[in-house]
Amino acid sequence: MTGRFAAFAAGVLFSVSGAAQAFAQDAAASKLDVELNALTPSQKGCMMTFVAENNLATPINKVSFELAFFNDKNAVDRITVLDFRDLPQGKKRVRQFDMPNVKCETVTRVLINDTPVCDGPAAGECMKGLVTRSQISVPFEG
Question: Would you say residue 42 has pLDDT above 80?
Answer without folding.
Answer: yes
